[in-house]
Amino acid sequence: MMMDEMEYYRRQFYVEAKEIIEKATEDVLKAETEPDNIELLNSIFRGVHTIKGSAGGFELEEISEFAHHLETLLDKLRNREIELTSEIVDIILNGLDYIAKMIEDCEKGLKPEINYELIEKFKSFAIPSKESENIRDIETSEKIHKEEAVSIKREEIPLEIVENLKDYYERGYKVYKILIKYTTDEYINGFDPLIFLKNLKSNTVYYQAITDISTVPPIKDFNPLTLYLQPVIYIATDLNTEEIKDLVFDETLIEIIDLSLQFKVPEKPEEFIPFEAIDKDVFNEFMIDAFEALDTIEKNILAYEKDNSLEALNAIFRAVHTLKGDADYIGLNVLAKFCHNLETLLERLRSGKVKRTPTIIDTLLKAIDILRITIVNLKTNKGYPFTIHQVESELKEILSSKEPLKEEPILSKETLPPEDTLNIFLDQASQFRDIIKIYLPKGLDEQNLKIILRALRSIKSSASYIGLYTLSQMVEKALSLHEEKKIEDFQKELKSIEAFLEGLLSGGVKKLGEILLEDQKITEKDLKEALSKQKKIGEILIEEGKVKKEDVQEALKKQRLMETGAQLSSKVTVKAEEEIKTMRVDERKIDNLTNLIGELVVVRNTYEYLLNSLINLFELNRQILRAFKDNLYQFTRLSYSLQEGVMSLRMIPIKNVFQRFHRAVRDIARKQGKLIKFITEGEETEIDKKVADMLSDPLIHLVRNACDHGIEPPDERKAKGKPEEGTVILNAFQEGSNLIIKVIDDGKGIDRKKLFEKAKERGFSFQSPDDPELLNVIFMPGFSTKEKATDISGRGVGMDVVKTTVESLGGKVYISSEKDWGTEVTLVIPTSIGITSALLIEENNKIFAIPIDYVLETLKIPASKIRRIHDRIGIYYRGSILPCEKLINLLYQKERTFRLGYDEDIEVPIIVLKTRNGSFGVLIDKLYKKTEIAIKPVPETLSNIEIISGVSIMGDGKVVLVLNPEKLV
Domain of 172? Predict the structure, then answer.
């Protein structure tokens, strides 16, 4: 592999590693509040393990070694060898931070250094205390003694997997260990183990793969056609060993080890849960939903008994599933377990693995009666009825029954089971069709024949399993022909199977001519000539001697087989659930595409300009003119749709920015002994990724300030009559063409007197502490009211960064504060860069554009109605006075207008603008039209002029300045 490719993949690793660290950090913070949540600890462990392995693959040994020591600590935590404490949380977070730093060093081309001090801390925390070790020994001893539990050694199967398998075994599932024996030769010949693993996973309730990645070489030595991994799979499933073998093309490629015998443990009787242990408010809501669910279940059981309705069965399943979840949520464990067994029976009825019988209907009705009595008893605090265990035993007996029950079939002979099973079959069918297409033309030598026969046996069992008996019989016939050594007939039958599968998978039927052409019996010229004659194509080709009668008969047979497959396709083909698929795209490609769309809009405007010029200069035919205008409309619509699509690619939820701050709040609160609740709102608000990247630093400064300067310690808050826990809110929403972000705290607020004194010391000339501009002084570089700087804040840098960054985006910062009540900082950021609608106007012989989102209305009024109001001019507008000003004065910052200088009869164009400061009228020379323009960032030479938010190129090639109404008024 070339070095530039190696570097590309290494860069991809850096991006993915950062994402893993962000996710792991979030999980660590959650785990601190949910220390018993093993899945969170497993998630963190997997993330660090992935970084360690990938770093080793890219020869980043320092990162791999450091991550290994952190991984060891995490492994102890998830195996419950040590308890999660606040100190351990801190050291894990420090470890994740340091890995992020090492990755940043690598990105910069620096060699990362291992932090041995942190490694020693990992080791010290990974050593359990003697006391906790003794307690664990006692607990383990008691557990083994009481349950005679698992005889599997921990070295062979991780403890977590053992516990999960045991849990599923006790719920009535079969548990297996599966060894994969695929070789590189099988893989090259088209037998992909991933097909089997996918099929297997979709048929399990628990699936865990253990993989040794040490066999995978570095990327420079990696061969994509070599199988390096041989995972060991642990599963819990309803399938028996024969059914698992049916999922693989050749059963010799796997080894199945039944683990059930090692989990036979006497059942523990469930304890009753007293009503008092459950929150009454939640329980009352549960009662209402439960009785409604029971009514639904009972009604549908009767419908299912009467009509064998699959729809009724699905309704029962959904209601029981919901009831199970609700019961588990409020702590009714016995009820939840009972519902789980009932749900399992219903699922097997749906899949056809268990058939409907009068006995099963009776058991279902008994189960509903028990559920109803149980819920009534819980309401009156009588406890569970004794018969709940009896009915539960009946459910388990049905589930464990190995003898097929006398059935009333749910499925007709060619009716198919659920979607997940069908999707598995379709994968196999597609693979088998490809095997015939590839290997049959090569000839039936020993190797090719072995591959085809293996596929035939697999497709036969799969077709029988899902009820496609037509296909199953065809395959059986082909196998018989092979055993009888009838090679020619065997090959013909393979072609028939291929035709059937083609129709099944495509849902369509090829025409006779297409089949003959595909089989190379005729040429395209023969086909065209035959089609030009008004007669059946088969008859024509035979009459003209182009094909033999046998060839046409064979093609017609193939067509009929395709038709049969296509008819069944409507049953077999199922709509896959919609899923969100993501793809990594280089940001530069998106930027380039955005620029191209902008140029397309300029070209559209040029087209419109040229069309208008043609209309003005020449007398065009009406039809031609209409065609031009229709074409312009289509051009406009398509360019706008493209722009919308490209802009949506750039947008990400602001949640991606907000979620980084939970860690900062948590660290400050712990360090300063404060209680802080951090609330984020509007996380789904979308924002341009570039803007999001730029806002990360300003927002972290604001959040830190709110926690450090704003929120008081608990005792101080209590003395003020406030809750001991302070609140910091981070809120985002869209307002017109602006993104609004607010950082709000309910802390001590800003002490205006102290700020006033500090401002005077720094030479600012404010008249009093009540000066409305006083608060803005905190945005000055180096300004801070803190006497002593800390590692959190106080150096006078943060707020300056906030103001500078927001203004570089064309935005504005507002602040309001009240002593002892809190502070609110508002960021207003325009989102108009890109393509937007704008109003074109003229002033002083120059064209300007104003984003349409700011335009409330356009007017033309007689000059006589424009009045002088105090020291400015205005008009009477919709029941109130609207202040106005000439645009030329606003542009050149001239003195306010006292006299218009217009004749009273002249109509003056006015734009009514709506900004954060209110409505305002702007007098201009001419109004043009609304149009779509591509706004480009302000050139560096104009970047210090606040009233300009961007530039655009018009159709005639002129450059137009886009005005910023927020700064203009």
Answer: 149-268
